[in-house]
Specification:
The protein is an alpha/beta fold and 363 residues long. The chain is built from 13 helices and eleven strands. A seven-stranded mixed β-sheet has the order 2-8-7-6-5-3-4, with helices on both faces. A two-stranded parallel sheet has the order 1-10.
């Protein structure tokens, strides 16, 4: 019998799997739930040939096109197969066993997973039970004892974003203390305040983004890093042989030529988010100040979340479980969707609250 390294034995991962999510209203993972146009799908099909399957990827034309789209120099950009590999490449390039890393909680799980895999000391700061977060205290925590600090802009579970001045102060404090500043901007384009404005003058800044959210390409598995040319050159050394599949490069290229596909989705999402927020407000349920394609709703204060998840699942609507943190158990992250699906969620919540005898303005 063989055994993994001691450090890997300590890593705990949740097993993926279960029933297929295809054909369902997927509100559980902040994916695109508004269909792409038939014409866009047809264009992708037309470009797929036998060589698409048989030829190693050639992403350079997409690098050039996407760098121009972002208005960034090509040498500041590095693609990866989703945010997961982007994060891992940062750890592989810069992090050694025993280093200290500052994270907030809740936050994207892969930061904590890689921290354990690479044997680092992790320091957490928590969102409070009302989803508040002390950004000033977080910035003040940063000192030279840390190798890296991470800030999600916005937070991927709550949707709240740091004020622009605090985002910049975070980067500046890291720069002053010699700490790597990692800003996770997975929801960029839904939220246009970005640390990328600092790339011209900050050497310690690395930005992580994905094509899974505003671009709506979660199934393609693609993401990218933005940083100084010198940093990208170093991170490039640990990339896999091919950082994108040929299919991913093809789809990204086609989407850039049909930007209305994701710009329209971003606009639709803003309307869906507003509808959801106002609907929960009429029920007397607090929601997070989200700027993404989801919100967190305090449903657990008025109804049994497990029952709600099960009830909606019977109707083909998927909701995420409550937050893992004990002090956040009343909150549930819910993705946006076409208005008809959101209305159904609100109707079921209203019915469950009424059955439980809860008091709210909408009754």
């Amino acid at each position: 019998m063989i055994f993994p390294k001691d450090i890997i034995q300590k890593v705990v991962r949740v097993q993926e799997g279960g029933p297929s999510r295809f054909g369902k209203v997927r509100l559980d993972r902040s994916e695109r739930t508004h269909p792409f146009s038939d014409s866009f799908i047809a264009k992708i099909r037309e470009r797929i040939t036998w060589e698409t399957l048989s030829t190693y990827p050639e992403p350079e034309p997409v690098y050039i096109k996407f760098a121009s789209f972002l208005k960034q120099p090509r040498e500041r950009l590095l693609f990866h197969t989703g945010s997961d590999l982007s994060i891992r490449s940062i750890f592989e390039t810069y992090i050694s066993p025993g280093d200290r890393v500052l994270l907030h909680r809740p936050g994207y799980a892969m930061f904590s997973v890689y921290a354990k895999m690479f044997g680092v000391e992790t320091v957490y700061r928590e969102f409070d039970s009302d989803l508040g977060f002390d950004y000033a205290e977080y910035v003040d925590t940063i000192d030279g004892s840390f190798r890296m600090a991470v800030l999600e802009n916005p937070n991927g579970f709550i949707g709240a974003a740091p004020p622009k001045d605090m985002l910049f102060k975070f980067v500046d404090k890291c720069e002053a203390e010699g700490v790597i500043a990692v800003v996770d901007e997975a929801y960029f384009f839904f939220h246009d305040i970005t640390a990328a404005d600092l790339l011209d003058s900050r050497e310690n800044l690395i930005i992580i983004r994905t094509f899974s959210k505003a671009f709506g390409l979660a199934g393609v598995r693609a993401g990218y890093l933005l940083s100084s040319a010198a940093n990208i050159k170093d991170i490039y050394k640990v990339k896999p042989m091919h950082e994108l599949t040929g299919f991913a490069a093809l789809v990204i290229d086609e989407l850039l030529d049909n930007a209305q596909e994701f710009r329209g989705f971003v606009k639709e999402t803003a309307g869906s988010l507003k509808f959801f927020r106002e609907g929960f407000a009429r029920l007397g349920i607090a929601t997070s100040n989200s700027v993404g394609n989801f919100l967190a709703a305090r449903i657990g204060r008025y109804a049994e979340v497990a029952d709600l998840v099960a009830r909606l699942q019977e109707e083909g609507i998927l909701l995420r479980r409550p937050f893992a943190e004990q002090h956040l158990k009343e909150w549930v992250r819910i993705g946006t969707a076409p208005i008809s699906s959101e209305q159904r969620v609100l109707d079921v919540v209203r019915e469950m609250m009424k059955n439980k005898g809860a008091s709210y303005d909408g009754l």
